[in-house]
């Protein structure tokens, strides 16, 4: 398995930041990765990245890897919320907000439905093929 390439993202576009986040989450085998273009729907961010994991430990692992690798890319998160509870962890990368859920919390809040007017970007070609 190829390691994630570290590149300077200090002047990257929001989509480039989102793509790097998706690559990192995919490398860590996060499930249900989705990219929502929310720029026209909210002032919070241009993109939301959503994914889920199977345990609190796994969610913390995804968040920790994002914090570490994006820091190496000169794009550390501005804030991280929910790390201790680890049922819904939110990392704010300014123009990209990452939501890492456990399955139950993702189903309960159903952000995809709440943001159904947002455009879901096709990232299938970017993701590694799953068995």
Structure explained in plain terms:
Strands 3-4-5-2-1-6 form a six-stranded mixed beta sheet. By secondary structure, the chain is an alpha+beta fold. The protein is built from four helices and six strands; from the N terminus they run αββαβββααβ. The two termini are about 15 Å apart. The longest helix is centred in the middle third of the chain and has 17 residues, at about 55-70. A hairpin with a 6-residue loop joins β3 and β4 (about 90).
- Main sheet characteristics: 6 strands, mixed
Helix/strand-derived class? alpha+beta
Number of strands: 6
Rg over C-alpha atoms, rounded to the nearest angstrom: 14 Å
Mean pLDDT: 93
Outline the low-pLDDT stretches.
none
Spatial strand order of the main sheet: 3-4-5-2-1-6
What is the rounded distance between the termini? 14 Å
Q: How would you describe the shape?
A: globular
Structure summarized in a few sentences:
This protein has 131 residues and is of the alpha+beta class. It has helices at residues 14-27, 56-72, 103-109, 111-114; strands at 31-37, 47-53, 79-81, 88-92, 96-102, 119-121. The chain has 4 helices and 6 strands, in the order αββαβββααβ.
């Amino acid at each position: 398995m190829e390691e994630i390439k570290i590149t300077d993202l200090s002047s990257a576009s929001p989509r480039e930041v989102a793509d790097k986040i998706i690559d990192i989450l995919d490398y860590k085998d996060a499930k249900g990765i989705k990219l929502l273009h929310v720029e026209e729907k909210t002032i919070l961010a241009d993109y939301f990245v959503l994914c889920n994991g199977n345990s609190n430990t796994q969610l913390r692992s995804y968040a920790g890897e994002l914090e570490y690798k994006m820091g190496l890319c000169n794009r550390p998160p501005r804030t991280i919320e929910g790390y201790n509870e680890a049922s819904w962890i939110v990392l704010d990368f300014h123009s990209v907000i990452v939501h890492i859920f456990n399955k139950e919390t993702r189903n309960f809040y159903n952000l995809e439905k709440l943001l159904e007017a947002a455009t879901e970007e096709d990232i299938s070609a970017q993701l590694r093929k799953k068995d």
